[in-house]
Design goal:
Helix content: 40-55%
Strand content: 15-25%
Largest sheet: 5 strands, mixed
Radius of gyration: 14 Å
Oligomer: single chain
Shape: globular
Strand order of the largest sheet: 2-1-3-4-5
Number of strands: 5
Number of helices: 6
Distance between the termini: 52 Å
Length: 149
């Protein structure tokens, strides 16, 4: 039997969150956290709305998932995020001991890879899923931002 709840399905849900951020004037990054094919956290960037530099999609999702699970560790969970996590988010993901991270677009300037940040040794990482869609949304956001200024 084919499982409709694959990585692409969940990344599309993260893209829905990124679009919600876009609509609010936030940098369009979205995230969902999944355990056993069930979304337990949905989030998008809220840095402008909350006036908080730590209000990245991943940080919001980590907090929400931990609250749902009733504990700080996200073992057996997968994070789907539309942009490679930054150094701050990678640090939080390290401490959460999340099992897997799937990201869409690579962040060549500020991503955890470019910054040399390490993740938990047990965390599996996969990148590039729906990269085109995520990248196009980010590019459109910054083009519109530049045109408004």
């Amino acid at each position: 039997m084919i499982n409709p709840f694959d990585d692409t399905y969940f990344m599309k849900k993260a893209l829905e969150e990124a679009n919600a951020a876009f609509d609010k004037g936030e940098v369009p990054v979205g995230a969902v956290i999944v355990i056993k094919d069930r979304i337990i956290a949905r989030a998008h960037n809220l840095t402008e709305q909350l006036n908080d530099v730590t209000a990245h999609a991943e940080m919001q999702a980590i907090t929400s998932a931990a609250n749902f699970l009733g504990g700080k560790y996200l073992e057996n969970c997968t994070l789907y995020v539309t942009l490679e996590p930054c150094q701050m988010c990678a640090g939080a993901l390290y401490w959460s001991q999340i099992s897997k991270i799937v990201y869409a677009a690579k962040d060549v300037k500020r991503g955890f890879t470019a910054m040399g940040t390490t993740l938990h040794p047990k965390t599996k990482i996969s990148g590039g899923l729906l990269e085109k869609e995520a990248s196009e949304l980010l590019k459109r956001f910054f083009i519109e931002k530049r045109n408004l200024n």
